[in-house]
Amino acid sequence: MKDGAHIVFHRTLKTRGRPVRAVLLIKRTLDARSDPGRWNLVGGIINSGETPARAARREFGEELSARSKPRIRRLCSLLRGPQGKRATVTYFHAYLPDDMNKLRLKRTRKGTPEERKVEGQGLGWFTEPEVKRLPVRRQDRIALLRFFRGR
């Protein structure tokens, strides 16, 4: 199991005229190797020689087309996996002002044109009550709860 780095992207939405914090989640494809069909944060594994922050920025560039260049800040680190095969996932948070019409999931660069697919089925901004009802990857849910509780 490899260490990972993920980003909780957030922004403020207006709901019934009131400002509400929302986070960006990506829905995994049904053929994903792990957690198919679940919602997760932007991120992935840390490559050899990378820092968690550099890996998080790289994953952002690989997964999303966005106009903003967000400034990430550390949120927390969590252990995942069974005893003896544990990995650390470092979570960051960053304000991302881009509207949904400016955000796109990118296609993978690997394989033939037919094999190159988008890394997720879709993406969206979700408030805390909405996140609580979604099927979110376990470790991401813990980080999201910490984010919504004020880090």
Characterization of this structure:
The chain has helices at residues 52-63, 128-133, 138-148; strands at residues 4-15, 18-28, 39-40, 42-45, 64-65, 73-80, 87-95, 104-105, 120-127. The protein is an alpha+beta fold and 151 residues long. The chain has a single domain (4-148), classed as Nucleoside Triphosphate Pyrophosphohydrolase, CATH 3.90.79.10. Strands 1, 2, 3, 4, 6, 7 and 9 form a seven-stranded mixed sheet that branches. The chain is globular, with a radius of gyration of 15 Å. The two termini are 26 Å apart. The mean pLDDT is 87.
State the helicity in percent bands: 10-25%
Average pLDDT rating? 87
Q: Helical region count?
A: 3
* Regions with little confidence, pLDDT below 50 for 5+ residues: none
- Class by SSE composition: alpha+beta
Proportion of strand residues: 35-45%
CATH superfamily: Nucleoside Triphosphate Pyrophosphohydrolase
Identify the CATH class: Alpha Beta
Overall domain count: 1
Largest sheet: 7 strands, mixed
- List SSEs in N-to-C order: EEEEHEEEEEHH
| CATH fold group | Nucleoside Triphosphate Pyrophosphohydrolase
Number of DSSP-assigned strands = 9
The gyration radius over C-alpha positions equals 15 Å
> How does CATH name the architecture?
Alpha-Beta Complex
Task: Note the overall shape.
Answer: globular
Distance between the termini: 26 Å
